[in-house]
Write a structure and sequence with these properties.
Layout lengths: L10 H14 L5 E4 L6 E8 L6 H13 L4 E8 L6 H8 L7 E6 L1 H4 L1 H4 L7 H4 E10 L1 E5 L10 H10 L5 E4 L5 H12 L5 E4 L3 H9 L5 E5 H9 L4 E5 L26 E8 L4 H17 L1 H9 L3 E2 L4 H21 L7
Helix pairs in contact: 1-10, 1-12, 2-12
């Protein structure tokens, strides 16, 4: 379930994350153009997240690497919101010729069909798997609403029991993997707590930093800049082994939450009508840049991510594995979406 991390580039690279995310908050213009690139003239990558989000970072980093490998020109088209429905609808309306891809979190194919009664798309029909793209750990952090002496998960549980009015946790949305992680942790501990969903990681982070919420689970890469500045404290990470990006932070499993081992992952999809041959061609391009492009690996590492890849069949298997692992939890916990 885990994938070995590359050796982190150190503090300098972590600081580069801030600049990288700032650069991502640009309009969806051309990322790169190669005068003699093979293949197609233009590739559009539809992204499920807004500018500056983790999916956006993945889409733009791959876009830079794919320019000159798969197409001469690569653009990122941000279509956030509505549990991926906006992005998937844009994909559905695109020609299935390999010139339009979708980059999104795995939940759009594995969990959202269970979470939302009227989703507006069917993954098996509307999403043709291409390849995995990136993986990262989740981290559980606390902000200024939590006393400084709370330094681990046990202390957090005790504090939340003593202060039930403050026993809340934010997430980037109902049914997201961070939300599921919070359900696993707090329900396992037998806590009465309140979930506070936000439309994405950035607004949830603002609420945490402002003291409006006590706890937040997010992909590790979004947390590192604030952790480096001392404004947040990370109490646990979600992988089986300690993160190489935060080696001093114990895993949740180390702290007694063995059911909370998970990683956030992102993948590429084509329109459902794309042929197997088009999907294989796109998958080969992802494989080429994920395994041979050191710059891509380093840039993802700056965001505490690792580049991954696989065949369309392997991505389909990953979607099914996550569905079997987490969809029953959504049902048993009564978690429903509102898209």
């Amino acid at each position: 379930m885990t994938t070995p991390h590359p050796t982190p580039g150190g503090i300098a690279r972590r600081r580069m994350l801030v600049a990288g995310m700032a650069a991502a908050i640009c309009n969806s213009a051309s990322l790169a153009q190669a005068p003699s690139a093979p293949g197609r003239e233009r590739l559009r990558i539809i992204c499920t997240g807004p500018a500056g989000s983790v999916p956006d970072i993945v889409a733009r980093r791959y876009g830079e690497a794919l320019a000159g490998v798969y197409a001469r020109q690569v653009v990122v088209d941000n279509r956030p919101g509505a549990a991926g429905q906006i992005a998937v609808q844009a994909l559905k309306s695109a020609p299935a010729d390999g010139a339009t891809w979708l980059l999104g979190q795995g939940a759009i194919a594995s969990l959202y069909p269970t979470l939302y009664e009227k989703l507006g798309y069917e993954p098996a029909r509307d999403l043709r798997p291409v390849s995995l793209a990136a993986e990262m750990n989740l981290g559980v952090v606390v902000g200024p609403a939590v006393p400084a002496e709370v330094g681990d998960m046990d202390a957090l549980m005790k504090w939340m029991r003593r202060t039930p009015d403050a026993a809340n946790a934010a997430s980037p949305g109902t049914g997201t993997l961070p939300h599921i992680l919070e359900v696993m942790v707090f329900d396992q501990a037998g806590l009465n707590w309140r979930h506070v969903p936000y439309p994405g990681g950035p607004p949830a982070m603002v609420a945490l930093l402002g003291g409006q919420v006590a706890v937040l689970a997010l992909p590790e890469g979004l947390l590192l800049p604030q952790l480096a500045g001392g404004r947040l404290r990370m109490l646990g990470t979600s992988a089986l082994e300690r993160s190489r990006f935060s080696p001093g932070v114990p895993t949740l499993a180390e702290q007694g939450f063995a059911r909370s081992v998970m990683r956030e992952w992102f993948a590429f999809f084509l329109p459902g009508g794309a042929s197997a041959g088009v999907a294989e061609e796109a998958s080969r391009a992802v494989h080429a840049v994920a395994t041979r492009n050191d710059e891509l690996a380093h840039k993802l590492e700056d965001s505490a991510m690792v580049a991954v890849q696989g065949t369309p069949a392997q991505l389909a298997a990953r979607v099914e594995a996550d569905r079997l692992a987490w969809a029953p939890l959504l049902v048993s916990a009564g978690i429903r979406g509102d898209a």
